[in-house]
């Protein structure tokens, strides 16, 4: 694995964007991260009832919208936009990928949440993702998921050049060669094992300077944070 550069910009991932800029997974949050120099960002994808890919972590809308009885996957796009409107502007994956074209140096980790497997097969899910990803954007996009069968299907449906990352929660590991693995930071002891397999290791979710430096020095290739701009300033000051 390549040795981490001194600047935190080279190894910090704006997890769901930068919370200093706005609500998680919104265009405002991603815009703030990019304007702060982020080279890596992560987003989450759910699918509405009418199979539109939206940038949203939770299926349950209680946490973000205070709507405990509503599920994102049970609403069509217009209904979901209406439910979210008072809390944040719902972003579609299509809109986010169009925005990404303005930042060619930014790599986006697109996490496909496995709620879709309650309705569709991995192969059908991959087809839903395929329509949003143009071949010219492959160098900027890494598809990640804790559902290994979704990753395998995306690799087949999109391109063998597609980079993939497994979110290591559970045992649903992909059969395809991994480019990345993302793990809770408590699993940092396994970094060397994954490096032996030539897999880049990302750890989540860390919002403290000292722990970020400790994990970086233990060999982590990427560290996800909710507070990209703040943590970058603190880390760069600490490293100077």
Write the layout of secondary structure elements.
Elements: E1 12-15, H1 27-35, E2 40-47, E3 53-55, E4 60-61, H2 62-65, E5 67-71, H3 77-84, H4 93-100, E6 107-112, H5 122-130, E7 141-145, H6 148-157, E8 163-167, E9 180-184, H7 191-196, E10 200-204, H8 209-217, E11 222-225, H9 228-239
Parallel strand pairs: 1-2, 1-11, 2-6, 6-7, 7-8, 8-9, 9-10, 10-11
Antiparallel strand pairs: 2-3, 4-5
Helix pairs in contact: 5-6, 8-9
Low-confidence stretches: 1-5
CATH class: Alpha Beta
The chain-level mean pLDDT equals 95
Q: Report the sheet with the most strands, covering strand number, pairing sense and barrel closure.
A: 8 strands, parallel, barrel
How much beta, percentage-wise?
15-25%
Distance between the termini: 23 Å
CATH topology, what is it called?
A: TIM Barrel
What share of residues is helical? 25-40%
Tally of extended strands?
A: 11
Summed up, the domain count is: 1
Structural class: alpha/beta
So what's the overall shape?
Answer: globular
Q: What is the N-to-C succession of helices and strands?
A: EHEEEHEHHEHEHEEHEHEH
Trace the largest sheet across and list its strands.
Answer: 1-2-6-7-8-9-10-11
Question: What is Rg?
Answer: 17 Å
Give the CATH architecture.
Alpha-Beta Barrel
Give me the number of helical elements.
9
- CATH superfamily annotation: Phosphatidylinositol (PI) phosphodiesterase
Tell me briefly what this model is:
The protein has 240 residues and is an alpha/beta fold. It is built from nine helices and eleven strands. It has one domain (13-239): Alpha-Beta Barrel (TIM Barrel), CATH 3.20.20.
């Amino acid at each position: 694995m390549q040795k981490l550069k001194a600047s935190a910009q080279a190894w910090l991932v704006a997890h769901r964007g930068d919370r200093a800029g706005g609500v998680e997974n919104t265009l405002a949050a991603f815009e703030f991260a990019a304007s702060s120099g982020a080279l890596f960002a992560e987003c989450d994808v759910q699918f509405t009832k009418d199979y539109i890919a939206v940038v949203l972590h939770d299926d349950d809308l209680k946490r973000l919208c205070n709507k405990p009885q509503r599920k994102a996957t049970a609403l069509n796009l217009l209904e979901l936009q209406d439910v979210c409107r008072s809390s944040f502007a719902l972003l579609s994956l299509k809109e986010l990928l169009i925005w990404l074209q303005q930042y060619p140096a930014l790599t986006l980790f697109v996490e496909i949440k496995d709620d879709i497997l309650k309705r569709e097969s991995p192969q059908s899910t991959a087809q839903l993702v395929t329509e949003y990803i143009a071949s010219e954007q492959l160098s900027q996009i890494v598809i990640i998921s804790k559902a290994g069968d979704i990753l395998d299907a995306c690799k087949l449906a999109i391109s063998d050049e597609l980079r993939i990352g497994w979110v290591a929660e559970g045992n649903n590991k992909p059969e395809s060669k991994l480019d990345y693995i993302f793990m809770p930071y408590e699993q940092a002891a396994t970094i060397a094992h994954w490096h032996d397999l030539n897999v880049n290791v990302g750890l989540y979710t860390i919002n403290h300077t000292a722990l970020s430096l400790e994990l970086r020095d233990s060999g982590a290739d990427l560290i996800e944070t909710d507070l990209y701009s703040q943590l970058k300033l603190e880390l760069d000051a600490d490293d100077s």
